[in-house]
Amino acid sequence: MPEIYQPTAEDKQRLKMREGMFKVSGDQIFATLQGEGVTAGEPAVFLRLHFCNLACGKNGGWQCDTGYTWDTRREDFWKEPIDWSIAQTAENIRAEWEKTPWEEKFQKDGKASKKRVVVTGGEPTLQQAKIIEITKLLPDWAFEIETNGTIAPRPELINCQINCSPKLSNSGNAKERRYKPDVLKAINAMPNSWFKFVALDPKDFEEIDQMVQECGLDPKKILIMPEGYTKDNVDEHRTLVEEEVKKRGWNFTMRNQLIWFGPKRRT
Length: 267
Fold this sequence. Notes:
The protein has helices at about 10-15, 75-80, 85-100, 100-110, 130-135, 175-180, 180-190, 205-215, 230-250, 255-260, and strands at about 20-35, 45-50, 80-85, 115-120, 140-145, 160-165, 195-200, 220-225, 250. It is of the alpha/beta class. The longest helix has 18 residues, at about 230-250. The protein is globular.
């Protein structure tokens, strides 16, 4: 078992939230293609925020690939996060986009499409008051917010795309911690919301079916993503679950970033 890091007083001070400041993970921001969901393949700037209220894989189950944003046993959880003001964050997003070849294309196309920012984590809704403020500073951008579905997005985020990934028992989180029916119902009622379930094998669909029925989720909004940290893992799990997806008329989404870049952090 890996050695558990013992944080210093300086580390603990670094982790404190500061008013009006984003707590940003070590990944900070990076421009890439969206790898999952209904906008897969779209160019975007990703903003990765620190902290999460779940712990996927800590107590068994599949392993979260961004454990450095929440796992207090890890040194990088304590050492990497930084604070950015809302204005500074907006400027960093603009600057990151301007370094990409997409900026030139958008200029030639007359910016017919919106530039895109994906707010991820961690769990971004823990810092959603600041997300609301940054949407005001970037009014011409399309915002996607990735969430685990345990904290309801505020009404001010109605124009954002909500990519909700409710967690199943295969994540290792206790049900009362990971499953919030009222939150899922509220997200379902938002006009641009989607539900991405991570599945390993056919038995996972018993849980998914129950959530869909209990929360009245729109079947057109449901996406199934095979779990895996490598392309081979994803392909194996896809083979196991694809028939169940077809039976229900739902849709697949792959973790395309594994195909494009392999299992590595995007920094």
